[in-house]
Amino acid sequence: MSFRRHRRDAQKEAARLDEPVREAGALARKLGLDPYPVNYWVVNYDEMNQLIAYGGFQERYPHWRWGMAYDRQRKTDQFGMGKAFEIVNNDEPANAFLQESNSLADQKAVITHVEAHSDFFNKNQWFGLFSDEGQFDAAAMLERHAQAIERYVQNPDVSRDEVEKFIDAVLCLEDTIDQHRSIREAAKDKDGRIPEDIRSQLKSLNISDDVRREVFDEEWLDRIEEAEREAAKLTDPRKDVLAYIREHGMRFDEETGKAEEMEPWQKDVLDMLREEAYYFAAQKMTKVMNEGWAAYWESLMMGDERFAGTDEFITYADHQSRVLGSPGLNPYKLGKELWEYIENTTNRAEVAEKLLRIKGITWRNFHEVVDFDEVQSLLRTDPVIDGVDAESLDELAALGPDDPRVDHEMLDRALSGDESIDVDAYPWKVLSYEGLAARHYSLVKPQNRGFLRRIRRSELEQLSRYMFDDELYDSVDEALADVNKAAGWDRMREIRESHNDVTFLDAFLTEEFVRANHYFAYEFSQSSRQFRVSSTQYEDVKKKLLFQFTNFGKPTIAVYDGNFDNRGELLLGHQYNGVILDVKQARGVMSRVYHLWGRPVNLMTIIKEFDEHEVEVARRRGREPTPVERAIRIRYDGTEFTVSDLDPDLEARIAASDIDYDTKPDDWL
Hints:
This is AbrB family transcriptional regulator. By secondary structure, the chain is an alpha/beta fold.
């Protein structure tokens, strides 16, 4: 880890943070994390706002969007609507930015948060999709793109407005990629070329009618056209819309009124923006997991492990409560609660499994014969491990040289008077991973008392179903002595490697979690014309959340045909899952796609229509009206939009099932 120093104030702040950075990295690794090395940069208020606008990087391509994002962030902070304490990017090494005006408590919180983020970047396989060929340097990639696009902007043969207009069009489609595959895997999909109008080509050759009839008869022309149409058909929808447009798109030339080949600079810009879309995809796909992961370990390090000093803790706790208490769908809060729930349920299953192996205890009589207060008492952390300080090192040594909870090398150094081992400030230094797991064992925390008692009979039955040595222990003491107190953390690390937000929620958002944390679903009421709570049922809440995170929370759009109606028109399809498109916004996107395709663009979707009389009746009776679903095709020809009913066979192709959350390829997990 290293600091970048510029101004005198930044140098002073960097010097103050050298120790917290070093010790936070060491603690993170003691806790079983494996972060990328992190370069910390100390920046001022204005630089921080610029970095946030740039998505965490110091250089991006010229475009008006960055100025808009900068102004929004500055006003958000200025009017007290939210302050940015940190920003970190996914790179190797990672780069994190600390605002020099932050308090020491805030800086420590940022550092611990960043170390956990960097671990997530390093270990989560969805981030690995972008770097599947080894190491990568995202900052260098984005810098190259910025410089290349700047050269196009400065080119006297290309106007800046033209470049920005083209970028605007591409950015409308930046999430229409196949985010479940690497950019290299997605690039392997190839389709037949879009067929040319062979009759028009023959006319341009200026051959005589006699030769044309003799050599190119109508039957032959029909066969060639049919063969080319078949070759161009898509057997499956292409999710990587940007790649398809890169292969087959054209530009509409306003002077000639025709579709022309894209300019080389346009293809180059499209390639660069598509590469950036794949780079940022993993961050969008794992927002809840990643922020929850960072919030969990930050809280443990700053609070439970007292990384925040006594005079800093109140400030830290106040700021964290604001972050976790932010209204709406809060990824920090939801993610942290889910990780804690996974830790608790894993630890509970570990304890229950040991108890079920005691003679006389079965899944049927578990709740009647187990003394949960006794179990809670026996699970309490050893006071020697829980209360480590400089005065108790001899007691720690008395546990013996084979105790796995002790870092014996560090303990020997501390006992030998090594001043670099400040046990009062950093008691974790003389403990191992197992010792820290025992020290922070979740089931003995006050907020989790009763969690073991709430285990359901169905879960107990499942645990005992394949249990053969079910009379292994004679007593509760003997059984609990074998409990692996690191089981929860071990399981959490396994999960953070393979899941994205949708699979994470699908697998671990249980009925117990929804009820305990008081989640509910809400929707806009057509009868009352305002938002209302629609359900507190677990299935409804889960389904609503899953749809919020499917495809980055945006509609899933794919290419269904590049030669629709044999006229070279683009046919896009909205993979409908019960959530309708914002048709007004969709039309705006289609008008931009037209400039990338150069020919008319079609969009298939399903809308919901309400009968006004039915709405009025529903309002009077205090219920919701039932909509009628209608499949439509919207067409844009560069001038106007037209809407027509969709053919039944095409309607069947865009309809998704109730459980299709578009989460992963079949063989992913």
